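Pasting as-is:
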Amino acid sequence: MAEGSKRIFQRYFDEVTNKGRLDLVDEIFAKNYAHHDPANPDEAIGGVEDVKFHLMALRNAFPDVAFQVDDMVEDGDTILVRWTARLTHSGDYFGIPPTGKKAVITGMNTWRMDGDKTVEGWVSRDDFGLLQQIGVIPSPG
């Protein structure tokens, strides 16, 4: 893996997700970036514009979103980042009107690099917990 991949992804979380610096997406992700959907792992969606679209949707729904990197592990051309996000549901989230509720979720991204560019990625996050915390799905009990 290229030297400095931990630095690249720390910058991704600090600057892109937390501050909305979408201009940096082009520096971090290859034009042909492929993101794998956990529900359909054999098919990939993506590209730089798709990354920007999803980041804009996240920041529009949760303008105060703050990711904290909890751990990073590198293995060859792959990096795994475990994170915690704190946010408030202040805008439309894929058709869910704002509830004003705060949430804390955890997740992991796995990315494969080619040189200094990210070419492939996977994410696993607590979407169910998010929907419970913002009041869309009832919590048990």
